[in-house]
Amino acid sequence: MGEAAQSSPGELVCVTGANGFLASCLVKCLLERGYYVRATVRDPGNADKVSHLLRLPGASERLELREADLLTEGSFDDVVRGCRGVFHTASPVTAFTVDPEVLEMIAPAVNGTLNVLKSCAKAPSVRRVVLTSSTSAIRFMPEMPFNSVLDDTSWSSEDFCRKYKMWYYLAKTVAERRAWEFAEKNNLDLVTVLPSFVVGPVLPKNLSSTALDVLGLLKGTLCDAKKFSIYPRMGYVHVEDVALAHILVMEAPGARGRYICSSTVMDNDKLGELLAMRYPQFKVPTKFPESYKSKYYTLDTSKLEKLGLKFRSVEDMFDDCLENFYHRGLFSLTDTLY
Ligand SMILES: NC(=O)c1ccc[n+]([C@@H]2O[C@H](COP(=O)([O-])OP(=O)(O)OC[C@H]3O[C@@H](n4cnc5c(N)ncnc54)[C@H](OP(=O)(O)O)[C@@H]3O)[C@@H](O)[C@H]2O)c1
């Protein structure tokens, strides 16, 4: 613990859920910095899910794929053994789910996180674990005062999330809380990163659930109904800044506690206006249902800024995301790039 806790380039680190949107970018950044990466996926034989990782620069020399499932106890024991740092990003990500308590959301998020942490606690080589939480774990509470500044002391209310069946938000909140309890009891050096809504280029073959939300927003298919509107006021953050944040808190000897990771926080209407002006070729909605309006709040990101992170703008993250969507052929040829 303490000053010796950081990992450095040249060392072996583990990334769970490595084929995901965020984790793929994290693996890319780690390889670029010279790390050896042990990457866990559920099915290393699934080319659709892993081939983009195998093609990354440095992968043939320094990337190792391992199979592990969050729901299998002990699945991560072998995987984390010998690693200096562990980035636990794997978790089911979708705002909509039918059988929340057991199946899709809460069990893998909460029990899965504990499984990974238990394996880390048994591995003497592991000096620090960085857990990907979410601003979902801090911004849902019944009585949030207008103009709140949410910081690393803020927590979403589990009762409030249950009452409104916000299962993803509940899962992230409970998973992070249990992680802190476990780390304290087991003297594990844990740091958490809490990204807001992540936007940017998508490396995996298939779009992640949040990338599909962005696509729907741009195409105007997400405008009037529930989907994007359930996030009435959101922070947005570039996927590469999130990856960098994970590495910064892993490397910084003095990193402690929770790190909110976000660029600008905006109401949906304002985001819609910005995107509609910037990309007039799309039908980006600028009005969202009143009932979904949320209270004004901001996010205190000073802890990451003090570690040197300069967050990219909302314009930059959407430009980079769109460029990626164009390369994937997701828009017709008549849609010109801004
Ligand atoms: N995207 C955002 O806006 C956002 C914002 C804040 C926080 N986060 C957090 O960032 C992390 C990554 O999210 P993402 O957007 O990159 O999502 P993603 O692309 O859906 O990646 C999720 C990863 O978790 C893995 N996973 C899910 N259930 C699993 C299980 N039972 N066992 C093993 N692996 C499992 C998935 O594997 P499969 O491909 O095999 O399903 C996938 O690799 C999550 O912890 C999420 O809560 C995301």
Task: Describe the model.
It holds the Pfam family Epimerase. The chain is an alpha/beta fold. It has one domain: NAD(P)-binding Rossmann-like Domain (Rossmann fold). 40% of the residues lie in helices and 16% in strands. It contains 14 helices and 12 strands. It has helices spanning 21-32, 47-54, 59-62, 77-80, 100-104, 106-122, 158-163, 167-186, 209-219, 226-229, 239-251, 268-278, 302-306, 314-327; strands at 12-16, 36-41, 63-67, 85-88, 128-132, 148-150, 190-195, 197-199, 233-238, 257-261, 265-267, 297-299. Strands 3-2-1-4-5-7-10 form a 7-stranded parallel beta sheet, sandwiched between helices. α1 links the parallel β1 (12-16) and β2 (36-41). α1 packs across α11 (239-251) and α6 runs parallel beside α8 (167-186). The radius of gyration is 19 Å and the shape is globular. It starts with 11 loop residues before the first strand and ends in an 11-residue tail after the last helix. The model has no long low-confidence stretch (mean pLDDT 90). Residues 17, 19-23, 42, 49, 69-71, 89-93, 108, 112, 132, 134, 172, 195, 197-198, 208-210 line the site of NADP nicotinamide-adenine-dinucleotide phosphate (NAP).
CATH architecture: 3-Layer(aba) Sandwich
Query: What is the CATH homologous superfamily assignment?
Result: NAD(P)-binding Rossmann-like Domain
Distance between the termini: 49 Å
CATH class label:
Alpha Beta
Low-confidence stretches: none
Please tell me what the overall shape is.
Answer: globular
**Helix proportion of residues, in percent?**
25-40%
Major sheet: size, sense and barrel closure?
A: 7 strands, parallel
- The helix-and-strand class reads alpha/beta
